[in-house]
Fold:
Amino acid sequence: MDLIVTLSCVDQPGIVHAMTTSVLSCGGNITENQQFTDPITHTFVMRTRFETDQSLAGVESTITQGLSHLKPKITIRPVNQKKKALILVTTESHCLRDLLYLKELDELPIEIPAVISNHQTLRSLVESHGIAFHHIDTEKLGKEKAEGAIKQIADESKVDFLLLARYMQILSPSFCQSFDGRVINIHHSFLPGFKGAKPYHQAHERGVKVIGATAHFVTSSLDEGPIIDQDVAHVSHSSSPDDLIAIGRDIERRVLSKAAKLYAEDKIFIVGNRTVVF
Structure:
């Protein structure tokens, strides 16, 4: 059995020794290991992948007991047990299409039980991939009921995280709290410099030379959650607003898909207001 263990705790002597000893105790052979100590929060994080012939229950018991004195936060997951992602969209399809494409290529190790949208625009695209499509009309239902419906679908589908693939709705603080550390969003890196409508047009008017996008965790503070990944592209005076939009779409879909893959592979740790990404 191929397993991934993640650990987060206060930095202290003997953590690596405790992990390797625990893995050895369950007959494990470590194939990957990464660790980092944040000097500001004094938080130690670690991701260990190993192979063993023991049962999952036996491994969980051995690892938990062997590391209990560290008072850590631990996750243990079989590599072949893919995480489930609920995707939220509005009308733009570029991020959604990329996620579906990479999943079909088996380059994005996730399951997608459903896609939710506040419009019907992308129904045919989603259903053509054999995925359930749910239309939740936020304007008609109101934010509270709409978010309640989203939460119900997420709970029934037993999803691990949510992907906002250009979902143009602001989530309430209570909803963000319910899925703390489990909602990933994408936005153009102009924010907060170019707030509001038509950021690419604003960027064109200011003659920017670099545009980009940021994937981040969602918090109750709009577009201020811990950053997972960013990318940029150079542009010039000859780039029209439509050119910037096209380039921006490409960056957005790449950054969101990368963040989804990192999360699916247990490579992201939230430490304070930042992330550690292996």
Q: What stands out?
A: The mean pLDDT is 94.
